[in-house]
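#struct-help
A.M.: can someone run this one for me? Single chain, 186 residues.
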Amino acid sequence: MSEIELRIELPLDDGGFLRRECPLCRREFKVLVGAEELDDLASHGLESFLLDEDTDETEQDPQHVEGPQLTCPYCGQQAESDNWWTEEQLAYVRTFAENIVAEMANKQLIRPLKRRYGGRRSGIVSISFEGNELPVEDPWISPGVNDMEVFNLPCCGRQIKVDEGWSETVHCHFCGFPHSRDLQDD
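D.P.: on it. Structure tokens below:
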């Protein structure tokens, strides 16, 4: 089987922040990411869609080791690093995965069958193949929007963005340390 390499670009706001969503409280925030980190997130996201979603990962691989835990800035709950996609990002990456499958089926199954059996009659046995190619969609995602306000995380030396109206404790997305909004330097 050949390897498919695909580059998926996720939209960032003007400051280089990527939108994330807590898998538990469903609130959105943003994380400042570098180009290499963004590439890793996008490729890991596509790989997770190619796995069977109905099967528990630990059943697939008995050697499964839990991935790094990240923390929601709002509710403080933790989840594995591949659980922080927004619904729109999930749909966007899913479109790429579905397009790969559709193109493979069209190229290796439907088109050859149409050429070989499409409308031909051979002796006594009549074989014909009529089939439509699977559709391929143009992936689309909203561009990065400059919303939310920057929150400096002194514990890890990084930045995130949270809702401007959020006045409660902000937890570090990376280490989980709780920070008071009152102590934030502007």
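A.M.: thanks! The helical segments are 35-49, 57-60, 87-117.
D.P.: also worth noting: Strands lie at 17-21, 28-32, 69-71, 78-80, 121-122, 125-126, 149-153, 158-162, 170-171, 178-179.
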